[in-house]
Amino acid sequence: MASWKRPSTLFCVFLTLLYDRVGESVVFPLLTFLVAPLVPAAQLGLVIGLLGGSYTMAQFLATPVIGSLSDHFGRRPVMLVCIAGSAVGVGLFGVGAGLGDGDSGWGWLAMAGGLPVMFAGRILDGATGGTAATAQAVIADITPPDGRARAFGLIGLAFGLGFIIGPGLGGWLAEAHLQLPIVMAVSIALLNFLVTFLLLPETLPPTARQPMPGPARLIPLRQVLELLLNPRVGGLSLGFGLFFLVFNGFTTILVPFLSLVLAWQAVDVGKAFMLVGVVAALVQGGLIGPLSRWLGERRLTMVGIGLVLAGCLLVCLAQPASNPQGGPMAQPTIYSAVVLLAGGVGVTAPSLRAMISRRLDAGSQGQGLGSLQALNSLGTSIGPPVAGALFTLAPRAPFWVGIVALVIVAALISGALQRQRQPLA
């Protein structure tokens, strides 16, 4: 009998990221419908933004610590702890959403307690949300510098496939009962833990491990500031953080925009995010390597930002079905917008990560990429609440503001690259 052969490490990382994204995307398109029973309609956008911000603020505080832990103890044990924490956090979030269900039988007490429990779940999920950052460190461990743009594309491929599977599955399950997608998300997280435990090897040899930094160095703002002040990667890292501040701000508020402004149902929102997944999978699964070699990481980053900007503009132009002048074109307009948004972030994120990673020392990939993920989380913790506040003022304001901000981000990244003395791709 032939002996069993362990799958490649990159494939194991891909599976881990795929399960992580599917579990998240099963629930994400349903946020409006899960939160709506717990808050007044006028505050819905702001509360959704705060829920998104609480997750990423917790991630911001924890991810540099997780990165340093992975540099000291290895990637595998840290990954397992992160996945287990996500399973518990999603479960708590589901308990809070269930309390707000009118059929729960707990009355006003459940309504009052449901939202705090949902926030607690999101905070725990964010605090243990270092799966992607640790996966990036694994990829950096086993991939030569000139191949990292393509390898980091696995993150986007997993994101894309997750958004093909998750939103459609979530919308379908929600038609039977709104809690079923959360049950599925918890089950997927538990499966992810099992697969990672059985298949993922350790990629950081003991000789390459770093001592744990002192408590002062584990303060996330300090690590982020060190990254931003690093002359090799500071400007690119700032552009990376601002890009995701803007992008995650208006994409978080896109769900209530589709639900409340365009009057889409959960299954319709799920279909739109399935399209996001298809595009992301195509771009980062097969096109990112050839595009990176053809255009180079610098040009590809600028193209990606331009695509995201165009997608924002199309969202601004979409009209509800009740508007005879633009309603019939609402779905094609939104579908076109999400194609541009997914394609844009699909080429921008791995290109920026690769340029930053190539400028980091080999022994500090975990801490450096962890700090980069923390910067992403800091921006993302600010973006959704700001977008939610803008949404309460005018539903299209987050997207108009996003267009202006993206122009500033493009100028910042371009200026940082021009100041670099190292050879550019």
Please describe what this structure looks like.
There is one protein chain. Helix content is 78%, strand content 0%. With 425 residues, the protein is an all-alpha fold. The protein is globular, with a radius of gyration of 21 Å. The model has no long low-confidence stretch (mean pLDDT 80). The protein has 15 helices and no strands. Helix 1 runs antiparallel to helix 6 (131-142) and helix 7 (148-176) runs antiparallel to helix 8 (180-199).
Structural class label: mainly alpha
Terminal CA distance reads: 48 Å
The total count of strands amounts to 0
Which term fits the overall shape? Answer: globular
Portion in helices:
over 70%
| Stretches with pLDDT under 50, minimum 5 residues | none
Q: Radius of gyration, Cα only, in angstroms?
A: 21 Å
The amount of beta strand, in percent, is under 5%
The H-and-E topology, N to C, reads as HHHHHHHHHHHHHHH
Tally of helical segments: 15
Largest sheet: number of strands, sense, barrel closure: none
Mean pLDDT: 80
